[in-house]
Amino acid sequence: MTKQTIAIGGMTCAACAKRIERAVGKVGGVLSVSVNFATEKATVSYDPRQAKLSSIRGAIENAGYQALETEKNGAADKDKLRKEREIRVLKMKFTVAALFGLPLLYIAMVPMDPIVQWLWWLPFPSILRPMNYPLNYALAEIALVLPILAVGYRFYTVGFKAFFQGSPNMDSLIAIGTSAAVAYSLYSTWQIAQGDFAAVDRMYFESAGVIIALILLGKTLESISKGKTSEAIKKLMGLAPKTAVVIKDGRETEIPIDDVEIGDVILVRPGGKIPVDGVVTDGHSAVDESMLTGESIPLDKKAGDKVYAATINKNGVIRFEAAKVGSDTALAQIIKLVEDAQGSKAPIAQTADIVSGVFVPVVCVLAVAAAAAWYFYLRDAAFSLTIFISVLIIACPCALGLATPTAIMVGTGKGAEYGILFKSGEALEAAHRADTIVFDKTGTLTEGKPEVTDIVPAEGVDRARLLRLAASAEKGSEHPLGEAVVRRAEEEKLALLDVKDFQALTGLGIEGTIEGTRLCAGNRKLMTEKGFSLGSLEAESDRLAEEGKTPMYIVLDGALAGIIAVADVVKKSSAEAIGILRGMGLTVAMITGDNVRTANAIARQVGIDRVLAEVLPQDKSDEVKKLQAEGPRKVIMVGDGINDAPALVQADIGIAIGSGTDVAMESADIVLMRSDLMDVPTAIRLSRSTIRNIKQNLFWAFAYNTAGIPVAAGLLYLFGGPLLNPILAAAAMSLSSVSVLSNALRLKRFNQGP
Amino acid sequence: MKKYMVIFTLAMSFFAFGAEAASFGTDVVGARAVTAFQEMLGALESPPVLDEAENAWVLTAPDGKAAFRWRRDTDGNRPFDVYLCFDAEPFIKAGLDVNKLPAEMKSLLESGGQLVLGSRLSPEPLVYEGDAGPLSSFEQIVRRDRDVIGYHTALDHYGVTVSEGSLLEWARDMSKNDKDLVFVLNPKVFIDAGTDPARVEGWAFGKVTVEDSRGRKSEADKFLKPFNLR
Fold first, then answer.
1. Degrees to nearest 5, angle at CA A275 with A270 and A279
2. Is A440 among the catalytic positions?
3. Measured distance CA(A223)–CA(A220) in Å, rounded
4. CB A648 within 8 A of CB A639
């Protein structure tokens, strides 16, 4: 299966997105297609043996839209340029429409409309006076409306094409409404030429012209606002430097970033940006990684440390070897992640999509029905036409189409700014529903770098030997507890020994043979399973566990030789973050493989009252499942290790923290770039704010159309109320889109603080 | 941007020059008003006659109580070039104090018992290519002083304005109109001079929907003397 993202030009509403989805979906071999109106991109999954990219692009073109470049390196810049060009063109088109629309409105309204009769004092060319020179007047309006129709030609080409292909969109409504106005006015002009001068009262050129001008204004503002919604991703894209200083044959050469290859040695001076990901080979410096992680304190980097593209070298000269370039760098991955999230649809968007899909045809029917009813009631074709145009124009569902994706874009962008990466719109939406949050303990609530606190040898066992043997065995383990033991032995300058028959016992501990001595080290469960007795050390073990320390039991040749207690330091932000989460109404739980006492001690420190202790890695997901079944609950799992991956997947929302493994991040729905747990409540608050914003947008978009259509159909007029002028309908319709976008942009003011 | 500015400039130029050049060719009201005026003259029992002394054509209303006059030539020396003359008696009987009327309205009062409402046109002489008949004089006036001619939507009439609010109107299409010829007077000057408009015999007093030259509609009081010629 191949997945491609194709930028699309010419979309005007959510109905366009549906139309493209239908068109591409019909191409044989296409497995799925999702078109995002806000990002103007289609994500297509297809079987390359059955479907060709060219046929997919052809389907888009045939539907009346432009299939722009397929996403690859550099497409972001092109995309940005295309957007800028689009805004420029829209501005020009609106300028032309306004230049002709204003005089058109002037000559149409100043003499005629009772609303603006107070403008009688304004000058008016005598040669255009409608009662003296009606044909001149009509021809002048035609001359003024033609350039406006010319700059708005896309509404007609796309709108009529969509209409005749059976999937009318917003353009269809505009095209039908304004064409009806122009056709009727041309007929009136012909009547004037035939001597029916009363037809001068039945001209709607100004409605067509001003509607197009106002919609172009709306589109221009919409385009500008849309650009603002993706500012976060643009900021990320702008972070990467364009060149790198590579050392080749001892000489420094500045080359374009695209030419950097894996293995190149790159020099970065103080104040310079790291161009690609790599490993420091020489030098020492502090590197500001805040642009990636949000962490404001620069990190010390020395030989062997990893550095990332777009981070800033603060004070020393470093050389590093390029390890990841192009689309493989962490920055590129983050950009891809945010772009994918912005391009994905939240489930809440489906409601809007369904409504938008049927909305336009329904509106067409309503417009015809309302106009026909009024015609049979009043026998006034001009009045019926006004109703017809007003209903078509006011009902354009563009606000509906923008309501969800724009808020998702701003929300995910805002998250990226704070180092919170939502991997999809679905993740952003689901997080707000969570009522329970489960934290992994080690590395998540705690620093994940435990220290040895106590070494308790059994009677007759030498303390140094106990530590030396335990550290020698743990040398092969990647478990944080084992690493702490090795570190302690190194600190005490103990020479480690070779281990034979090493074996990691998942969730229990390790075993191996050292200089002929069989060693077994692990938790209490291991002791129980293997049938080792704690003997006289049981009381000591309980005391350590009560203190929140993790006792590691060391068994030599079948007998308990001692306990090495390890304690993991709770992160500074853990207690505060959990307090906030509880304040937000969430049930907070902790899950750990540690014994109950140790787990309880940590839980007490951070304020967690529900503890799931002694849970084997493979059982973590089952525990999450059990939690989900209670109530039922919507569960968030926060973890960092490989062992958390199944639970992250099982949970309704998985949150991986930045210090975690690639597997955890791959399995999670939300990735926190920093290890700061304060980002967890921030992510949930951002989700809640975004969903609230979407609901507000949907409410206004629905309310606007629900209220607007009956007014445009003349319901109020029927009872002596006002009638909606088509021009006011166009203004209201354009303003509705702008108001929805403005509301979405309010999310940019979202603050990290509680 | 330049491209659009060029389009705008060209279109505006086209519009300005085109409208100017086409001003007469597209003057459907002017052209058709003359044709309808001709048809109306043809429907009159008594065709217009020339008042040699005044050098003006006289279209007398079928009841003989009012007339519309237009000059065969204009020289700028006469008080009016297009004007309505009508019997003063019905107004006097309805309370009109003629002393309160402007002097120019009374120029025919002593000699013919009529009041006059009219206006001057451009002083340039009318130029005739053929006979200087009543229609050709009227056509010359329409061509030269086009603004005195208008269209009245509410009654489907053309009209020639003789003074503010007072005019002679004739049907655009007599076959579809029961008021083929209408003398219209602005009642203000008469009411200000003491006339009780409801008591003026031979003139209907009422509200009429009128439009100014820009098409703005309003309701106005009028004295009307309508005639169905067919």
1. 85
2. yes
3. 5
4. yes
Q: For residue A448, count other CB atoms closer than 10 A to its CB.
A: 21
Q: What is the pLDDT of residue B17?
A: 46
Query: What 3 state SS string does A418-433 have?
Result: CCEEECCHHHHHHHHH
Residue A151 is inside which H or E element, if any?
Answer: helix A134-151
Q: Which amino acid, one-letter code, is at A21?
A: E
Strand, coil or helix: A256: strand
**Which pLDDT score is estimated for B196?**
96
Residue whose pair of structure tokens reads 């539907």 in the numeric block: A63
Contacts of A6 (CB under 8 A, 6+ apart): A41, A42, A44, A56, A57, A60, A67, A68, A69, A70, A71
Q: How far is A256 from chain B (nearest CA, A)?
A: 34
User: Considering only CA atoms, which of A227, A669, A229 is closest in space to residue A409?
Assistant: A229
* pLDDT tens-digit series, residues A621-677: 889 999 888 878 899 999 876 677 788 888 999 998 875 556 666 778 898 888 789
ipTM of this complex: 0.78
DSSP E strand stretches across A471-626: 500-505, 509-514, 517-522, 550-556, 559-567, 587-591, 610-612
Compute the average pLDDT of residues A322-332: 84
Place of tokens 């053309």: B158
Which run of H or of E encompasses A631? none
The label of the residue with tokens 């048809």 reads B39
Give kind and range of the element (H or E) at residue A323: strand A318-324
- Among A197, A205, A220, most B C-beta atoms within 10 A, so best to mutate, is A197
Q: Which residues of A226-237 are buried (b: 16+ CB within 10 A; e: fewer)?
A: bebbbbbbbebb
Å from B47 to nearest chain A CA?
26
Q: What angle do CA A190, A196, A199 make, to 5 degrees?
A: 70
A434 touches A684 (CB < 8 A): yes
Sequence letter at residue A634:
K
Using alpha carbons, select from B96, B103, B138, B109 the residue that is nearest to residue B121. B138
Contact A96 B8 (CB under 8 A): yes
Q: In one letter, which amino acid is A77?
A: D
Exposure of A328 in the CB half-sphere (CA atoms within 13 A): 10
Nearest CA in chain B to A114: B216
Residue with token string 């002694």: A614
Q: At what angle do helices A205-229 and A134-151 cross, to 10 degrees?
A: 20
Q: At what angle do helices A398-417 and A679-712 cross, to 10 degrees?
A: 170
State residue A397 phi and psi, 5-degree precision: -90, 30
Closest-CA residue of chain A to B5: A96
Answer positive or negative: Cα dihedral of A221, A222, A227, A228: positive
User: What is the pTM assigned to this prediction?
Assistant: 0.64
Q: Which residues of A touch B213 (CB under 8 A)?
A: 126, 129, 131-132
CA A489 and chain centroid, separation: 46
Tens of pLDDT, residue by residue over A260-317, are 888 999 999 888 889 999 999 988 888 887 766 655 667 788 888 888 888 888 878 8
The Cα A343–Cα A608 span in angstroms is: 37
Can you tell me whether residue B145 is helix, strand or coil? coil
Residues pairing with A67 in the sheet: A8
Place of tokens 């290859």: A261
A122, A129, A131, A144: best to mutate for the B interface, most B CBs within 10 A: A131
Say which amino acid occupies A73.
Answer: N
Cα within 13 Å of Cα(B122), Cβ side: 13
Chain mean pLDDT for chain A: 84
Residue of A440, A594, A669, A679 with catalytic role: A440
- Alpha carbon A585 to chain centroid distance? 25
Rounded to a whole number, what is the distance in Å from the CA of A85 to chain B's nearest CA? 12
Single out the residue of A8, A206, A220 nearest to residue A93, CA to CA: A220
